[in-house]
Amino acid sequence: MTATPSPTLAQSLHFWARNASNESALLQASLRLGLFAALPVEGDAPPVSLDALARELRASPRGLRSLLELLVCLGFARQDGQGDERRFALARTAAGFLRDASFLSTLQAELPWWEPLGLLDEAVKRGEPVPHGGQRWDVLGHYRALFLDAPPALPSPEAADFFDRFARSGARTQLLITAGRLGLLELLAASPKTMPELGAATYLTTSGLRVLVEVLAKLGLTREDGGAWGLSPEAKQLLEGKALAYLVRSLSVSAQYWEALGKLDETVRSERFILDLKDPEVSRRFYADNSNQITAVFASHFQLSRRAATTLARARPLEGAKVLDIGTGSGVWGAAFARATPTTHVTYFDQAVVLEQVRRNTESLKVSDRARFWPGDLFTQDFGEADFDVIILPQVLNVLRPEALPGIFARVARALRPDGVLLIAEYVLNEGRDGPLDHLYFGLRRFMTNEGDLLSASEYGRLLADVGLTSTVCIPLPTQEMLLAARQGVSLPTQLAPADSVARQEPARGS
Ligand SMILES: C[S@@+](CC[C@H](N)C(=O)[O-])C[C@H]1O[C@@H](n2cnc3c(N)ncnc32)[C@H](O)[C@@H]1O
């Protein structure tokens, strides 16, 4: 058996910034809900259905499903069967430690720390325990215990790995959020500094700063040399140029989920959403931060969307095509189609407030003369009849609750010309719905924010066939999937165009 290679620092940093807090929250919510206790042990008793578990735990089936699919993907649970016939059990190795009373009490002792860990910046400012819920919490001491002191004696290496995911993963995300928010990462990136210099530059306590830099060193991000702390050579290389600002922005998005992740069990039980993005005020605040992120990733998404446009153009020429980009965001998908030929005309649809940015982006990409801006609400908008050759739904279906999908698909199918093509760019799950892991974490966040569900290609296929789009193909892109759908007989590409074919199709500058 070959050992799994250790992740690189780049992979770890990506995980800590985006998904490590999801991982701890998933495992802590599963324990709080009694899910580990309710699952029969693999091989000892028959596996159970989602509905039976939901009844026993008095929890929302959809919420419970979001947890179970992740537990299966991580190997802590097993599933048999497909679709509604799926049955779940606790993996035998996981049962080895999750049925151990003393290990369970070690896990239980970590549960009250989620909210106090969210006060790490306060602890670093004070350098002493912070008040929360009528008690004082030694957050810095807890970080020392988790990362710097000798680890607790645990029953097996598998139990130690579980404990790490359960308690330390989320603490790593919060450490990075705090280091980003306090400006510490920028200071360390600029030049190595002694502890008193760091204290003077940040007005923070040196006792608090010391815990931060020492735990960051444990993660391989900082290093002390001759009494001065700076980024480690590997971290320096990773965070060069715009990468550090990009990391800090993505950490600020992760920070928005912290409170809701700590109450994930309540959301799974009752579908009471702590971060409810269907609440207009919450959504406005959230997306104001998120839109910086969308703009920051424009360049990398533009490469992706241009490759998708080139791929479609190989099967269905786009000369003179009318394209509708629904939920356009930055306009990155529609603009890629506008750049595919000098005659494509693109309609960009989104909330009015978002379209201002799209207007600027189409101007700088020199495609504004073939652009139309259409403000509206995608939940209710009539998109017309047989008006468009291509309709794009890029990363937008995941904001719609599952019951809204048949309605939008019907409106979109009606708006497509007979030989029109619908392009969905989404995180599409595998057919077992137990991977890929990053997609499942993204789906967990959509559930906890009262948004959409992720589907497999065949689940999309069934919904699209219901509105007459019976021909579908799913083509993996580098970070997400592209699903193309059309009426019978319309030719669709089956493979992604090579990356170097995109540049060859680039129209002359200024056209
Ligand atoms: C996740 S972003 C995707 C942005 C872009 N398509 C991309 O791939 O980068 C979702 C977009 O849907 C838009 N949106 C959400 N709810 C909407 C609604 N009810 N009506 C119109 N647009 C909406 C948001 O403003 C946002 O721009």
UniProtKB/TrEMBL annotation:
SUPFAM superfamilies xrefs: S-adenosyl-L-methionine-dependent methyltransferases, Winged helix' DNA-binding domain
Gene3D superfamilies: Vaccinia Virus protein VP39, Winged helix-like DNA-binding domain superfamily/Winged helix DNA-binding domain
Molecular function GO terms recorded: methyltransferase activity
Keywords: Methyltransferase, S-adenosyl-L-methionine, Transferase
Species, as recorded: Pyxidicoccus parkwayensis
InterPro entries: COMT-like (IPR016461), COMT_C (IPR001077), COMT_dimerisation (IPR012967), SAM-dependent_MTases_sf (IPR029063), WH-like_DNA-bd_sf (IPR036388), WH_DNA-bd_sf (IPR036390)
Name of the protein in its database record: Methyltransferase domain-containing protein
GO biological process, one term: methylation
